[in-house]
């Protein structure tokens, strides 16, 4: 279905190798992108793999005024046997469709979503970094492109996938815990809102709080619920887990204000398969402080596609800070991260069929 337009002047092999030596995250992009157009008359059409480049938008494009925009994030991995695979792209495809429904946007067929990513990874396979933990980060996104000023669902959409060579999301050795800033004045999402959808507006709403976190020497912000301002919900871009001294895991429930993370779901599945008790239940800030002080809480970690599993060492607020465990990655955090990465990289069995092999 996809028409391919090879790049006339791709990045040279020498320059590509230099960029891939230390790609970081979200700054080193591949040569191509996948593009599919939609309108109410023709449906989804004109599927193309084409050179990555700037977009031409009319100043009255609906997305610029009414923010109909959604996105996803997933990775392509080099497996231990030298082949390449995606991890749970079907789950991303479903969530993309759910997000589109919530924002009154056209829903892209799940098979077409997956095919667009497969074709892009295939043509830009040489951008996969060889460094430890390297991957190709895929960013599918869709926005309202109709030229129209008026509050209504758009009749035209543009779906695009871009790819970026990725290294570590956070600096460091992965064992030192990150420091969180407790947001007391801002909330990420409210009941009945778009918290469970992966749309840009949710992240825009978190940025002032994230800036506040950085000014206070923290790595990430953690949000409380919008109603009572007492229940822990999630970070600016990651879900959160708590490890108790009896070995159980606690994570906030999916109540419509929290993004249903695919990494979150994978970790719950792996933990339960390993005999662990996982409780999806509300966890308050006061309980978090008390459990950290008493030693009942021994570890905490954040998780997401980009950061995978990241230990949390401290929580800081205007009232001071508290430390979780010894401030470093604990045994359960490291165990779950290792188990997840082993499945993603093909060095462990995949009983759930999560690994989607490409070539």
Give me a quick take on this structure.
This protein is an alpha+beta fold.
Portion in beta strands: 25-35%
Structure classification: alpha+beta
Distance between the termini: 19 Å
> What string gives the helices and strands in order?
EHEEEHEEEHHEEEHEEEEHEHEEEHE
List the domain count as a whole number: 2
Rounded to an integer in angstroms, the radius of gyration calculated over CA atoms is: 21 Å
DSSP, total strands = 19
Q: What does this protein structure show overall?
A:
- This protein has eight helices and 19 strands.
- Helix 3 (89-102) packs across helix 4 and helix 6 packs across helix 8.
- With 359 residues, it is an alpha+beta fold.
- The model has no long low-confidence stretch (mean pLDDT 95).
- The two termini are 19 Å apart.
- It folds into two domains: 3-166, Aminotransferase class 4, branched-chain amino acid transferase, N-terminal domain (D-amino Acid Aminotransferase, Chain A, domain 1), CATH 3.30.470.10; 178-344, D-amino Acid Aminotransferase, Chain A, domain 2 (Alpha-Beta Barrel), CATH 3.20.10.
- The chain has helices spanning 13-21, 63-66, 89-102, 110-123, 200-215, 262-273, 285-294, 331-344; strands at residues 3-4, 28-29, 32-39, 43-51, 69-71, 74-78, 84-87, 135-144, 156-166, 178-182, 220-224, 232-235, 239-244, 249-251, 278-280, 297-304, 308-317, 320-323, 355-357.
- The longest helix is centred in the middle third of the chain and has 16 residues, at 200-215.
